[in-house]
Design goal:
This protein is an alpha/beta fold. Helix content is about 45%, strand content about 15%.
């Protein structure tokens, strides 16, 4: 029979960083029963595989999942392969386009693999919600829809705002919160975790569980992590994300690019450090916030790539940015010498430093491209195809271009 820490100790640990908690008293009762029976709680968390990669924003929630695991509880990692085909309308001002089955499965495989950079694989049960939602069929889905009213759905802020503005709401979007709620029924969840934008969906699950003879789940929401811009929540579509599988130097550099104010927010949501103490040391001891940012960058790189990689990333940062030196290893592109001068945006595209010539021109206009150490001032700039040159895009991307006879 499993043993668990005292309830008060578990509650104190689990409620740290939580925004919405419905309710602490109910969780205490469940934990007490868990200790008495020696049976772990079932903690459910769902992720729709709408993109192939996990970023730091996802790990805020995963760290809480890991805390439940470390206390001995069972975490069910629900891959929303069924619900991803509907598209979560949370926080959306318009209908989310559905994904193909192939996209969903490919993303799910990547999501699951990356999740174990944070979660304990031995205490994680991975389930696909098509397992039970796919079996409902038309009749079952209609019966499920009959358990909630349109009026209740319109209590949800994003639905209400779209309705009031005359922005279309597709009927299938109403099915999303119900499908997510049925996940909790199928798993008999004791607790469901989610971001603050998921509060409505989590409450739907809590509302309908008694209809199926189940005790309502406890709800715990975690804050949404702001992205590198410090404004919008971290999102790959907004380009303000830090992916957990990005190269160590890229993670380190992105962390060093954020503001001091955002740094403390990331410390709060992504680490166990005492933020008040960090700020006190700056105010009273004269500690440089830059040093604290470097420490945060080391922590995050080490978490996903190991201590050695974190040390190398820091040295790379010092070389390139602090000492204004070049990195030890710079990729090379060998191209044929001779011929007409090459238009620089074309060269940036063909060497992979820009996705398109249009993007290359925007980078040049923004002052983000250097050639042999000098900023490229004109998007009409050309390069004679001879000799050796160093291209730099942004702060972290370098390419040595070598022109020689018989290149490529």
């Amino acid at each position: 029979m499993a043993t668990f820490p005292p309830v008060a100790e578990q509650i104190e640990r689990l409620k740290r960083g939580v925004v919405d908690f419905v309710s602490e008293e109910e969780l205490a009762r469940k934990l007490e029963r868990s200790r008495k029976e020696g049976k772990p709680l079932t903690v459910k968390v769902g992720f729709d595989p709408t993109a192939p990669d996990i970023h730091l924003g996802h790990t805020v929630l995963m760290r809480k999942m890991r805390e439940f695991q470390d206390l001995g509880h069972r975490v069910v990692y629900v891959i929303g392969d069924f619900t991803a085909a509907i598209g979560d309308p949370s926080g959306r001002s318009k209908t989310r386009p559905p994904l193909s089955r192939e996209q969903i499965l490919a993303n799910a495989e990547s999501y699951t693999r990356q999740a174990f950079l944070v979660l304990r694989e031995d205490r994680t049960e991975t389930r696909f919600n098509s397992e039970w939602l796919g079996k409902l069929g038309a009749e079952g889905m209609i019966r499920l829809a009959g358990r909630y009213t349109v009026a209740r759905m319109l209590e949800r802020r994003d639905f209400r705002e779209r309705f009031e503005k005359g922005i279309p709401i597709s009927i299938h979007e109403f099915l999303y919160p119900l499908a997510q709620a049925y996940d909790s029924v199928a798993l008999a969840a004791d607790v469901e975790l989610g971001g603050t934008d998921q509060l409505f969906n989590l409450n739907v699950g809590r509302d309908i569980m008694p209809d199926y003879g189940l005790e309502p789940q406890v709800i715990m929401t975690l804050p949404l992590l702001e992205g590198t811009d410090g404004v919008e929540k971290m999102s790959k579509s907004l380009g303000n994300y830090v992916g957990v599988t990005e190269p160590p130097e890229e993670i380190y550099g992105k962390v060093m690019s954020i503001s001091d104010e955002l740094m403390y927010r990331w410390y709060e949501l992504l680490t166990d450090e005492d933020v008040a103490e960090l700020k006190r040391r700056v105010a009273e001891e004269g500690v440089n916030p830059r040093d604290q940012k470097m420490a945060l960058a080391r922590i995050l790189v080490a978490r996903f790539h190991g201590e050695e990689a974190a040390a190398r990333a820091e040295e790379h940062f010092r070389q390139v940015f602090a000492r204004k030196e070049l990195p030890d290893e710079i990729p090379e592109a060998v191209l044929p010498a001779g011929g007409e001068p090459i238009w620089l945006p074309r060269l940036l595209q063909e060497t992979g430093l820009a996705k398109s010539r249009g993007e290359a021109r925007r980078l040049i206009r923004g002052g983000g491209v250097r050639l042999d150490g000098e900023r490229v001032a004109s998007e009409d700039a050309e390069l004679a195809p001879e000799g050796e040159h160093l291209l730099q895009v942004g702060k972290r991307r370098f390419l040595r271009v070598i022109f020689r006879e018989g290149g490529r």
